[in-house]
Amino acid sequence: VLLEESGGGSVKAGASRRLSCAASGRTFSSFAMAWFRQPAGKEREFVAYINWVRETDYADSVKGRFTISRDNAANAVYLQMNSLEPEDTAVYYCAAGTYSGSFVAADYVYWGHGTQVTVSS
Question: Average pLDDT, stretch 99-110?
């Protein structure tokens, strides 16, 4: 599975941004999909996941602000980010795995190259 993120950029605090991840290769609908992020100089951290029955979960830091969704017909997963804060500044990665839903980066087999999101105050 090849994953490619898009939609990153620079925004002001309070703005919204939608990230997209296009998948190609093996059957997309059978994978759990997730978003992780990595702030500069910090470790990669879980943001959200959605499994094949569309169950979702989120990191506490983004609950109520971010929404993950998927379109199996389009082989795509999205991350709608609202009320962005400077603390959301990071490189955002899309990931695919076979676990039903996991917060752990090591459980995801396929990764995109990331897209930078910068939120200024």
Answer: 91
